[in-house]
Amino acid sequence: MKKIFLTGFIALSLLFTTTSCDSDDDNNESVINVSDLPKAADTFVTTYFPNTTYVTITKQNIADIDGSIYDVKLSNNFEIDFDANGNWIDIDGNHQAVPVALIPEKIQTYVTTNYPNQFVTSIDNEKTTVEVELSNDLDLIFDLQGNFLRIDQ
What we know:
By secondary structure, this protein is of the alpha+beta class. The protein contains 3 helices and 9 strands. A 9-stranded antiparallel beta sheet has the order 1-2-3-4-5-6-7-8-9, covered by helices on one side. A hairpin with a 3-residue loop joins β6 and β7.
């Protein structure tokens, strides 16, 4: 009887292990066409990145913790995450300058005053903070009103 119970327990353990391995993040997203991207997101891209094309657009079945659901990669190497309504959450220039028009004025003023030879290469809207990465790889954290909080270590 112990042998049957042990064999059953092992079989169930293997079943649960196999099932949990199948639910990885790769199955949580699918490639979509630009026509499936929210209009606000497409308008954002064509407004701020007019000379680029879409390389890939993926839609996640479940939003990330920051609310992003659409991941857009552009031909100029920028990567932008959008929420379900097409509002940008994260812009990563991959070591290129994020357009100044997209950086809140108070944050841009802080950067140009305190880091005059640097520029913003990434900006991330979190739930309670805004994180920017500078061209020297320094991460600065601001509150939602644009007040400097700290350097992220």
